[in-house]
Amino acid sequence: MTKRLLSFVIVSVLLCSVVFYSVTTGSIQMSIGDLVRGLISGTDEEVQVIKDLRIPRIIIGAFAGAALAVSGVLLQAVLRNPLAEAGIIGISSGAGFTSILLVSLFPALYFWSPLFAFIGGALACFLVYSFSWRSGFSPVKMILVGVALNAVFSGLSDTFNYRGSYTVTSISPTTTSTLAMKTWTDVEIIVVFASIGLLISFFLCSSCNLLVLQDKTVKNLGVSVARSRLFVSAIAVLLAAVSTAVAGLIAFIGLLIPHIARQLVGSDHKCLLPFSALAGAFLLVLADTLGRIIIAPNEIPASIIMSIIGGPFLIFMLRRSEKTHGSM
Q1: Are the CB atoms for 90 and 146 separated by under 8 Å?
Q2: What is the pLDDT of residue 107?
Q3: Residue 267 needs a FRET pair 20 to 30 A away by CA distance; which of 17, 44, 165, 295 works?
């Protein structure tokens, strides 16, 4: 069995294992057999609690993790930068701002919040691309522009979130950044929109493999670089926006997973994209599960656990980038 195939098998087994562990562990402990029997009969109150509260957050965690990881792979191909990640360069916060704006002004349009989040994410992506590539591209410059945009959009979100002493956090999932108290309506939203984005991204393998080459080389092959870059960027933003609109701002999955995936399955996007989807789903469900059980009955949001893990990794990547590209 090759290393690539073995990696797919291992991450699939890990994902199934953490899902089974997560659904049976917590304030209500239950075996898989009892859970299945309770779901079929529909008479067990504890099973109904698991069905309405725990299973939706697991499904949302899996889809959000997969979407963020694949979004990171696509952005790194488009920007040809190993540090590109929706949460770091401001795309998620831009998506979060437009999402909370929609929820605040038009609550009836909640189901379409991912599309409004897409507009904010696309604006942030355009600004990062424009400012960091104007006079020669620099990985560190892109991070600085992204941090600045992230601060601006976060401030705008807080403006709508806090109105004097009144907070509207409870009506907007983008400001809570936690997978708790999710409903089957949230599951429906992320499954519909994230599935579309993930399926399209799996057909972009060839484009991603070409975009990592020099533009002149790609043009000589008869491929429109601008068109490919725009379309791949749009799918990356859509995936990040969907995740942000439903699960909130969760950073670093799109940075961690692609780098680990390249070490295990290589840089060919035909393997890199599906493997990153599986690994991203596993990582976010694992982080959410750990957050539920570490200090039970209280919880630590998965976004906080990812920040604790991802912060040092970003510093490591920045130091390695400085050695490769030199200081800005």
Answers
A1: yes
A2: 74
A3: 17
Q: Per-10-residue mean pLDDT for the chain, 328 residues long?
A: 86 93 83 81 80 89 94 87 79 82 76 80 82 64 78 78 53 60 86 92 88 76 78 88 84 86 88 94 92 81 82 72 54
The span from the CA of 64 to the CA of 18, in Å, is 15
CA distance 54 to 52: 6
pLDDT tens digits for range 293-312: 887 777 888 888 888 887 77
3-state secondary structure of 31: coil
- Residue spans of beta strands (DSSP E) within the chain: 162-163, 166-167
> CA separation (Å) from 129 to 73, 118, 125, 209?
16, 16, 6, 20
Let me know: does 292 contact 26? Beta carbons within 8 Å: yes
Secondary structure (3-state) at 166: strand
The pLDDT > 90 percentage for the chain reads: 20
Give the number of other CB atoms < 10 A from CB of residue 139: 20
Give 2's DSSP letter: -
Looking from the CA of 102 toward its CB, the CA atoms found within 13 Å total: 21
Per the CB < 8 A criterion, the answer to whether 289 and 18 are in contact is yes
Question: 3-state SS string over 138-155?
Answer: CHHHHHHHHHHHHHHHHH
d(CA 112, CA 84): 27
Rounded to an integer, what distance in angstroms lies between the CA atom of residue 219 and that of residue 308?
Answer: 42
